[in-house]
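Project standup — Tuesday

K.O.: blocked on the structure for the chain from last sprint. Re-posting the sequence here as requested.
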Amino acid sequence: MKLLVTGGAGFIGSNFIRYWLNKYPQDEIVNLDKLTYAGHLFSTRDFAKNPNYKFIKGDICDVEAVEKAMSGVEVVVGFAAESHVDRSIIGPKAFLQTNIIGTQVLLDAAVKHKIKRFHHISCYDRLTRAYTKRGLKYYWELRDNDEVLSLNMETKQIEWKKIKKIIVQDYEGGVINLNTDKLNFKVTPNHRMLLQTPKAKKLIFKEASRLGSVNIFPRGSWRSNTKIDKNLMYLLGVFIGDGFLAYQEKYQKNKSGLSKKDYIKIARDKKNGRFISMNYVGKQKTTVMKSYRIFLDIPLKDKCRKKLERVLSELGLNWHSHSGKAGEHLYFASKKFSDMFKSCGKGALNKTIPRWALKADIESLRALFDGLIDSDGHWGACPCFCTSSARLSETFSELCVKLEFIPHVFERKKQENLYQGRLIRGGKSYLISVTRQQRTVRIGKGLNQISEGLYKGKVWCVTVPENKNLLVERNGAFIFCGNTDEVFGALSLDSKEK
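H.V.: unblocked you, prediction finished:
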């Protein structure tokens, strides 16, 4: 097979050629490069004399040069581009000429020569997930109408943005590995990373292959005009962590034969409003008595017991304390609260923070966070929260991001423990650690947190209008990262665009 690689004297292109010639020594490669500020023949020195390699100095905007280079080629891999943002400001004409006109020249030539495949790639690997309103989703789970969390580049505020396109491609080549004890991400070398400058704290994009010695991933701030009573939000957090609903029905003999609505209408004296005695006048034999009790499993000596009692009293709830074989509880009865708490999911495995609560302002969200940590968490230098619900681990992480915290989710497999002669079997659970320290990747003495590697498989990206970034997760770590929709002017012929 014969390939044309444009921009093959640059960092990404030369590494691709080197990789391809080593893995497929029988294939031929033609390298078309203009040798601008980003291209150097020094990068190709180790394979320059390979009999299956040929270099042509030329511009992808030059139709004649492209036609010559594409003769007999089956696959085109496009790396030639004005990819640096600063260059687009200094020389916008060259930027537009190369990226738009140059791409069009290559596409026209590819169609004319019946090229089998045309690759132009910049994406995430298959294990990276996007955070949507439906939770964390792999690329194959994303929908056209999904909204993702994104950072406004000017205000640094966290916003929900609808994705415009979902692009999935097959990829075989180099990747940039970002590895620390807190991060583990893989991106293609020309992927745009969203970073924060150290001093001015401005948001900028930088290619993964050009990351510096210190790279800071930004946090965002959440703004909302939805204020919710802080006592209510604290109670919601405690209920999600350590509460459950106990709805009961009891059938009683109906003494009047009337429904409650009819009894109030007929039995009430119209003059003084008092109820009058009456015999069995209706046809209803039984009445359903409904009980809407909410239990909170907070022991008497628990760290948040006194605060919870105060919150319940301030909310005007007639609460009670109970101690028995099942443990120590606080409970109260309320249909209104029972209906509200139903939105938190049924059963421990399905618990979640409801969407209406996550829309609240910062102060309300902080009260919710406090209730969650007080109930099923642990306070410390880095607070932790535990849950057996995958969905709750996701919505709790969203809560942390909105509070400018950095969450990290650790998945714990099924465990068995022997306690007082009894075998206790536990299912899969999630531990979320929380910190305010921003994520960074560094290159320096004793540090090798940025490295090159090889990858074969699916890569993906989405188009996020205006902000051009989204919140992504890989192996439990979250960062706001760029979406590289600008490079998608040329797609592989077999790529899937939803």
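K.O.: great, moving the ticket to review. Residues 193 and 482 are 5 Å apart (CA to CA). The chain has three domains: 2-119, 124-219+438-497, 230-435.
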